[in-house]
Design a protein that fits this description.
By secondary structure, the chain is mainly alpha-helical. The protein is built from two helices and no strands. Helix 1 runs antiparallel to helix 2. The protein is elongated. The mean pLDDT is about 85.
Length: about 60
């Protein structure tokens, strides 16, 4: 089967998931993550997911 549509590839999805987990862990204080890294993980992860949904093959 071909991947028809604008769904992100598996590797992009995994990268976004890792960034989301880093942000969640920082938000709830499970692991101490420096504030700029915690904030940017939300921004980069969500932005990458939005771009990946619009760009075919990303």
């Amino acid at each position: 089967m071909r991947n028809v549509g604008n769904a992100p590839t598996l590797i992009v999805w995994i990268i976004c998931l890792v960034l989301f987990i880093v942000a969640l862990v920082a938000q709830f204080g499970v692991v101490r993550v420096p504030q700029p890294a915690a904030t940017w993980s939300w921004i980069v992860g969500f932005g990458l997911l939005l771009v990946a949904c619009r760009v075919r093959g990303l």
